[in-house]
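Hi R.,

Here's the chain you asked about this morning:
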Amino acid sequence: MFKHLEPNKIFQLTSKAPKYVLLVFIIILSIGLTEALILSPEDYKQSHSVRIMYVHVPAAWISLGIFSSITFISISGYIFKNRNFFIIAKSLAPSGLVFNIIALVTGSIWGKPTWGTWWAWDARITSMLILVLFYLMYLIAWRIYEDKEQVL
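And the predicted structure, written out as tokens:
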């Protein structure tokens, strides 16, 4: 398994069709966002603001999933002494941060008409804010140290 995770093997696998994957991504994203934000019916209680949930909830789940993946991959890197796991974990962190920020912003946009406030110190919202701080600390740790051995 580890011989397939070498950087040159991964590059051979991932560099074959990026433009086709990008094209499929753009098509699927536009169809999904059109259906979710324009064509979906409004809710009887929340009116049009319920449509933001089609962006907010997946962004929150993806953010949590990426953080869980970073944790699992980092622990596996220590167990198996494989440096490629740390490179993979490091490359996942910016995506998780972006999805976490999307979840916080869309949650605030949804919260204003629904709750009457942009921010409520709810446990779920506060834990997502703490997760943003964890993402930022993880990324800053990789940037601060010149010797990458200190980060691991």
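The chain is about 75% helix and 0% strand.

Let me know if you need anything else.
M.
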